[in-house]
Amino acid sequence: MAYNYLLFANPHGKNVTPEKIQKLRDIFSLGERKLRGKVVVTKNLSQLEKVIAEHKNAFLKYKEQGTTMVGIVGGDGTVMHTRTLVEKIWGYTPTYAFFPEGTMNNIHRAVGLGGPHSSVKLAKHIVDTARTDTLENYAVPFPSLDINGKKGFNVGFGLIPKLLWIYYGNGAKHYRELEEAMQHCPSGEYQAKYREITKKQEADLFDILSKERGVWGAAKTALRLLNGLRRHTEEEYLLHKPLSGEIIFDGQRQFFPQAPSGAYISCYDEVNLGLGPLNPKPALGARKEEGKFQVVVQYGNPFSIIPQLHKVIAGKKLSNAVYKYISSLELKEKFAQVDGEIIIEKGFTVRYDGKREIMALPVTA
Question: Of 83, 88, 113, 143, which is closest to residue 341 (Cα–Cα)?
Answer without folding.
Answer: 83
